[in-house]
Design a protein that fits this description.
single chain, alpha/beta, 17% strand, elongated
Length: 361
């Protein structure tokens, strides 16, 4: 069943106040040797209220789950992709750190290795091990119905993070925590228009198919470019599957097939960094000959921006632990949780990149 795309103002002001103040309890490792924590306040996720909203949320009573003390609970976390991507490393670490801080009795963690069938079986296995609350980072927006139905049958609430699922709120899952991906695409377009002056030929390195992140980041970018910079022509759209090696391969092909490309919009940093490698190998200067804008906020991308090899990065904050457990406490406290808890994301450019490295992941 398709989720009704409704948003709701966060009526519980306490949730906003609490989550806005939460800082990450540890800094995830990065691919760079420098792993300094920097300003921890830069790493915190904060929820924001949509200006216009409607529709019901979900409460413990509405969901029909038993009351639970998280300190004595078995919580399961299902990660979707292998932890070679800095986003996934930081996300998993944030969940583990906050579970420890909360005093969760037992945290079960699994990794689907980018296989939908494995994520389904992972969730079912955690249920069989006694999981009483589930946090799921979905691989795809569709296909997890068997796992969610198994959780619903056992009255185990499911909180989804970072990707939406096409299932019924307060029946198959409690809520979604994550970014406004359409807005991320629009912000990336604005940054690209600024970097290019609104003219030239741009290629889009698409994320993996089958999830709302790719669809929404594409829509936001394409619509904003069409509305604000008709002189910036989108001449190619090819998937790099959110992977650095794939992004590099696609960029290598595009350098040959579309030699006049002057800009690249990568729907995550890993693909953007792969494009940097391909451009350098071809004798081009990334950030100058070819402008690059991507989404995520990884340490390596922000460093590339500081080094002049990138033009902008729109953050997609992966540190879901504090917000996820704060939301769970509100839920088990009887409060109604909005079906979409949207987080606010920062943006990096040449003016703040060096100073912001400590808060990147």
């Amino acid at each position: 069943m398709m989720i009704q795309h409704r948003s709701r103002t966060l009526a519980a002001a306490g949730l906003l106040a609490a989550t806005a103040a939460l800082a990450v309890s540890g800094c995830a490792k990065s691919e760079t040797p420098d792993n300094a924590g920097g300003d921890s306040s830069q790493a915190a996720q904060a929820a924001e209220s949509p200006e216009s909203s409607s529709g019901p949320g979900c409460s413990l009573r509405m969901y029909g789950a038993p009351k639970l003390d998280l300190k004595n609970a078995v919580v399961g976390f299902s990660q979707s992709e292998k932890e070679a991507n800095p986003f996934r490393i930081a996300e998993t670490r944030s969940i583990k750190d906050e579970a420890a801080k909360t005093g969760v009795k037992k945290l079960l963690t699994t990794n689907a290795q980018s296989q939908l069938s494995k994520q389904i079986s992972d969730i079912q296995d955690m249920l069989s091990q006694g999981a009483q609350f589930l946090i799921v980072a979905p691989l795809n927006s569709e296909g997890l119905e068997p796992a969610f139905k198994a959780a619903a049958a056992k009255k185990v609430p499911v909180l989804t993070i970072d990707r939406k699922v096409n299932s019924t709120v307060c029946k198959d899952h409690v809520a979604f925590l994550g970014s406004d991906f359409v807005a991320q695409g629009r912000r990336a377009a604005d940054a690209m228009i600024k970097a290019t002056g609104g003219t030239g030929e741009v290629a889009i390195l698409l994320g993996a198919s089958g999830n709302n992140v790719t669809t929404d980041r594409t829509k936001g970018f394409v619509d904003q470019v069409a509305a604000k910079a008709p002189g910036l022509k989108i001449v190619a759209r090819q998937t790099g599957e959110f992977a650095r090696d794939k992004g590099q391969q696609v960029m290598e092909q595009l350098i040959q097939s579309k030699p006049d490309i002057t800009a690249v919009y990568a729907e995550n940093d890993e693909m953007g960094l792969g494009a940097v490698t391909a451009l350098k190998a071809a004798g081009k200067k990334p950030g100058k000959d070819v402008k690059i804008v991507s989404v995520d906020g990884t340490r390596n991308a922000v460093q590339a921006l500081a080094d002049g090899e990138y033009n902008a990065v729109i953050e997609s904050n992966p540190r879901f632990g504090p917000l996820a457990f704060a939301t769970a406490r509100k839920f088990y406290g009887g409060e109604e949780i909005p079906e979409n808890v949207i987080i606010s994301d920062r943006a990096y450019d040449a003016s703040n990149a060096k100073a912001s490295l400590g808060g990147a992941y």
